[in-house]
Amino acid sequence: WSYALEKPNTGSIFNIAWSIDGTQIAGACGNGHVVLAHVVEQRWEWKNFQVTLTKRRTMQVRNVLNDAVDLLEFRDRVIKASLNYAHLVVSTSLQCYVFSTKNWNTPLIFDLKEGTVSLILQAERHFLLVDGGGIYLYSYEGRFLSSPKFPGMRTDILNAQTVSLSNDTIAIKDKADEKIIFLFEASTGKPMGDGKFLSHKNEVLEIALDQKGLTNDRKIAFIDKNRDLYITSVKRFGKEEQIVKLGTMVHTLAWSDTCNILCGLQDTRFTVWYYPNTVYVDRDILPKTLYERDASEFSKNPHIVSFVGNQVTIRRADGSLVHISISPYPAILHEYVSSSKWEDAVRLCRFVKEQTMWACLAAMAVANRDMTTAEIAYAAIGEIDKVQYINSIKNLPSKESKMAHILMFSGNIQEAETVLLQAGLVYQAIQININLYNWE
User: For the IFT80 second beta-propeller domain, which residue ranges apply (predicted)?
Assistant: First the structure.
């Protein structure tokens, strides 16, 4: 698509070149002149705010709720900007400005070591800048936090698909070996856990960290070169974490900024995984936790730009933006479960009367070891065999055997056996293996 058309009175333009930061273009003309142009009218949106780069050094902020307009003037030309999590981060050729959406008049300003910022990523607590010298993490108060490094790091090729940021983790795809993803602690810049990187059997194309929840539950989703979507845990201590396939023919993905809901464009369908963790808890009900709709309206090669609240923004190949709204109820369910309000969660599911909600609640309840809620939810989606098994777990005499059977329910047979052996329940451990025909 064409953003702008200019016909300067300079004869034919024989050659053009972009500046390193991608904001200026120069053209060599037939009559000996050199034309210089700057990229303007770039637009960033977040909730009720719209920010437009009107001139090289001027931005206009518009609040669509009350039509209030603010003008932001900068000393140098704007190179990169990002608007998310109630903050606007703008990098110019010499400085970085951090604006809060509550107050546009007093930005926080700090100097940059190198002016060519090529990428800005934001999380709820901090933001990340990438320039020619390295990767730098700052708090929204302008305090420098960390600068992760790994062997053979090249910052000039990093982009939003190969770097991901959450409140506690930074994930970076390696360029030398594209099967490897490096994981760093955001606060220190040191490698996560025991220092092991994440390795996959195929080349990885795109990575994304979930944004909510505890550090120990942090998940990373990624697409490999076969366009398969995988999910795995970020915390890796000794034992090899399972990398589980979530979907096939996935072209682009994004996590919600308010809860751990994942969306992606899958072949000819737009798919939302309301509770991706279901693959670790009860794989059988995963299809019941999905929302799917036809994606043919987005034409070829669409790309997910953002997933804010319950609104997904998709850019089509012709440059136009399409907004999709998904149900707000799964996000409310996530909120209730994270604060252990199980009765409210059940009440919400009864109000909504949707199978996807009950399936999500069933998986969430098993993951949080709340078998009473799990029993109600499984009964609502007609999984009678699982209701009976949960009832049998409730009648077990010891705490350890209950724990072991809950782990077995989620498919963690090895862990269940370990729990029983540690509690001295050797007979039950043998019985589990006999029931599963594990004669070795």
Answer: 41-329
Q: Considering only CA atoms, which of 21, 29, 27, 25 is closest in space to residue 37? A: 25
C-beta separation of 77 from 22 below 8 A: no
Query: Which residue type occupies 185?
Result: E
pLDDT in tens, 199-257: 999 999 999 999 999 888 899 999 999 999 999 999 865 455 689 999 999 999 999 99
Rounded CA-CA distance 160/388 in Å is: 47
All domains of the chain in start order, with CATH: 1-39 (no CATH), 43-326 (2.130.10.10), 333-435 (no CATH)
* Contact in structure between 239 and 314 (CB atoms under 8 Å): no
The average pLDDT across 163-185 equals: 95
- pTM to 2 decimal places: 0.91
Q: Are strands 78-84 and 244-247 parallel, antiparallel or unpaired?
A: unpaired
Q: Is the CB of residue 256 less than 8 Å from the CB of residue 331? A: yes
Rg (CA), the chain: 25
